[in-house]
């Protein structure tokens, strides 16, 4: 349990068995409006994000209704149909990073045009971020040229601090942006085959409000890229730290799906599940948490629990004791889990194939991690890419 002076008391659940059970326990509610009212009755100035209404901040029946509108778009079949699109975006981004590809495109010949071309890049900025955000843009039908704007909003929303001014401004700006695009489509009778069109059709049927459309787009836009951005960065760093595991993976690239599962467990991109509160007293591991208490389920700690995973602090890409909780569980299990794994599998396979020699272009102690309790990810990852 955490309780800082002047702050909100929080109970933290770290053990695998307890976290897994709590993820599916209806006594842990997530309705952010009820949670905000509860927080306001105890502490001033706590912002739980009640300005945004989406699936992760709702309980049944609202959660059921909201998830039903979009769940078909993330079925296994639909996600596999996105593979060519993800592969195309991945190769386009790698071509931009590849000095040899650039020389071939411009048809120049210089003394430095050798088979051992080298490039120094920031993997987060130049590859890990644009890949999933471009995928989400195609999925939702949003302008890809505004991707840096989406990243700014996402960062402000998931790393809210102080008086939350940046958070509130980001929510306002994103809402205005989404509704302006929606209104423009309606005026032009423009209905492309994308998720935003599906959301507008649901509004016409009376299934969604404007606020819920904004919340859905925000969730898909932010959640749809944050996980993959962080996972690609931490996975690359883990491979650099574990050359034996990198060699095992390079020996047979078809092992990548298994490796991605271990990357998810080893350095979970979502290290803390969204805040819950108890609707009645709950016994967790022999400790009773009273009613109306705020609870954090530590996915990252659960995935390193030695009672569940053998040698949990070691990266083992062919690990047999599987069953990580990186995507949560229960009715709130991440809707985009299959897409996130597909993106990571394709991206890492292509990156390792294109650049057989990848080295860190800075000292490890100079790496900066994102300042957020919920996400585990690097701000930057400078790499030297060797062909």
Question: Can you walk me through this structure?
Answer:
There is one protein chain. The protein is an alpha+beta fold and 387 residues long. It is 50% helix and 9% strand. The chain is built from 16 helices and nine strands. The strands form three sheets. The protein has a four-stranded mixed sheet, with helices on one face. Strands 3-9-8 form a three-stranded antiparallel sheet. Strand 5 (282-284) and strand 6 (287-289) form a beta hairpin. Helix 5 packs parallel to helix 16, helix 9 (147-158) packs across helix 10 and helix 14 (256-266) packs across helix 16 (337-354). It is globular. The N and C termini lie far apart (50 Å). The model is unreliable at 104-115 (pLDDT under 50). One of its GO terms (molecular function) is oxidoreductase activity, acting on paired donors, with incorporation or reduction of molecular oxygen. Keywords: Heme, Iron, Metal-binding, Monooxygenase, Oxidoreductase. It comes from Streptomyces pratensis (strain ATCC 33331 / IAF-45CD). This is Cytochrome P450. Pfam families: p450 (PF00067).
Question: Could you write a compact summary of the structure shown?
Answer:
By secondary structure, the chain is α+β, with helices and mostly antiparallel strands. It has helices at 16-23, 32-40, 62-70, 76-81, 83-97, 99-106, 123-128, 130-140, 147-158, 165-188, 195-204, 210-241, 243-251, 256-266, 299-302, 337-354; strands at 10-13, 28-29, 118-122, 276-278, 282-284, 287-289, 294-297, 357-360, 382-386.
